[in-house]
Amino acid sequence: MTHSVERPLLFLDVDGPLIPFGASPGRLEAPSSGPGAFSDEGNPLLGRLDRGVGPRLLALGCDLVWASTWMEEANESVAARIGLPRLPVVEWPEPSTDVGPHGLHWKTRPLVEWAGQRPFIWVDDEISAVDRLWVAAQHPGPSLLHRVDPAEGLTGADFSVLARWLRTEVPGQAHWESPGDGERTS
Q1: Which 8-state DSSP code applies to residue 94?
Q2: pTM score, whole prediction
Q3: Radius of gyration of the chain from Cα atoms?
Q4: At what angle do helices 129-138 and 108-115 cross, to 10 degrees?
Q5: Residue 98's pLDDT is what?
Q6: Alpha helices per DSSP H over the chain
Q7: What is the dihedral of CA 7, 74, 26, 56, to 10 degrees?
Q8: How far apart are CA 124 and CA 132, in angstroms?
């Protein structure tokens, strides 16, 4: 008898984790002309995307899902720039008066609902202790709510945390690796 374990989900925000808000001295800007160049589509912040992030996210072995207010625009403007295929997109519900405890992020409840029983990682720059406590009480499986420094975006240290969590907290999974552990992505 074979037992199939669903891969963990990785919910991914764009602003902050992928497009850092701060000027990162070590981050290379995308080429503005020549092979591999993308138009900024009127958004100069797209030049802050790090092409090395997509392959590292894919190497984690999770099912990636956009969890951003960019919604489908993340597939149109971000995915190819960082080496990702089109991803599923969380459709956010209309704002509700039933928001949960004070300080609970508006994304938290929909992400737990989307995950169902599956293990998940949520990468965002707005995660708080209230979100972690609520998820621990409401989600039956393993979860990691990983806050990224919005001035830096995803770094090698962040990828090390994600890979270590996957190796230790998600039973029955293959070898989780993060290429370049210990390196900066930028």
Answers
A1: P
A2: 0.83
A3: 17
A4: 30
A5: 67
A6: 53-59, 73, 108-115, 129-138, 156-169
A7: 20
A8: 12
